Amino acid sequence: MSKITLHTLSSMKKAGEKFAVLTAYDACFSHLISSAGTEVILVGDSLGMVLQGNDSTLPVTVEEMAYHTQSVARGNQGSLIMADLPFMSYSTPEQAMDSSAALMQAGANMVKLEGGAWLSDTVSMLAERGIPVCAHLGLTPQTVNKLGGYRVQGRDTESAKQMLNDAVLLQDAGASIILLECVPSLLAEEITLALDIPVIGIGAGSDTDAQVLVMHDMLGLTPGRSPKFVKNFMQNADSIEAAISLYIKEVKDGTFPAQEHGFE
Ligand code: KIV
């Protein structure tokens, strides 16, 4: 696979070609996922739950994110690496600069942060200094305490309008990608059509430009009940490599997510 850049992703959006995103936290899975042709690897702060066993992403630090980003970068075979800025590492634009610098120096090609309009100055500051940003809207796990749980967002008219406005504002501020988590499928479609930049969805229906899943979820490794938007790709595959290839294929041909994985 030739090296994936933001230019590749934006050309894919223009051409109506979907791209696949998966999380990875180490060199081995980074190698596997990128060799299979996943366009973007997300070094998600979900590692706080999946690897560390916490009940939220809040305990994850910049140092831990940098450590895992370095490992992923060593295994990467050409995917674009996006790394999460963890909880409270971007409360001011200056703090966001320092935290992002640590992740970019560890091997990330871009950073992701969670939040809406209040982040537009931070996004501008990072983008102007050469750090591409993905803005995560909808269910933002770092604010789980304020949201009162892991719930679908944007279901009423006012919050849906707010999310659309935030997405446009963040694009105008310089964000390169928007990620929507647990958002009604129709709202995600509306936001995707309104933006020039690519939109990645998780629990956001089939009409976004790309899909992401936590790798452990799509391999059926996460203990307990899976969220509605997860599909276990190991059920129709006889190896991890085959499950990852099937995920990429189903994202690209629009088979995944099916209607049952989305929200109204
Ligand atoms: O941390 C993560 O893995 C994420 C995805 C769930 C989108 O942010």
Characterization of this structure:
This protein is α/β, with parallel strands linked by helices and 264 residues long. The protein is 41% helix and 14% strand. An 8-stranded parallel barrel has the order 1-2-3-4-5-6-7-8, surrounded by 8 helices. The longest helix has 17 residues, at 157-173. It is globular, with a radius of gyration of 17 Å. It binds 3-methyl-2-oxobutanoic acid.
Please state the overall shape, judged from the principal axes of the Cα atoms.
globular
Query: Which stretches are low in confidence, meaning pLDDT under 50 for 5 or more residues running?
Result: none
Can you summarize the main beta sheet?
8 strands, parallel, barrel
Instruction: Specify the helix fraction band.
Output: 40-55%
How many β-strand stretches? 8
Percentage of β-strand residues:
5-15%
**Unique bound compounds:** 3-methyl-2-oxobutanoic acid
The value of Rg in angstroms is: 17 Å
Would you tell me the structural class of the helices and strands? alpha/beta
Give the neighbour order of strands across the main sheet.
Answer: 1-2-3-4-5-6-7-8
Mean pLDDT: 98
User: In DSSP terms, counting alpha (H) and pi (I) runs of 4 or more, how many helices?
Assistant: 11
C-alpha end-to-end distance: 36 Å
Q: Give the helices and strands as they follow along the chain.
A: HEHEHHEHEHEHHEHEEHH
Features of the shown structure:
single chain; 264 residues; alpha/beta; eight-stranded parallel beta barrel; 11 helices; globular; binds 3-methyl-2-oxobutanoic acid
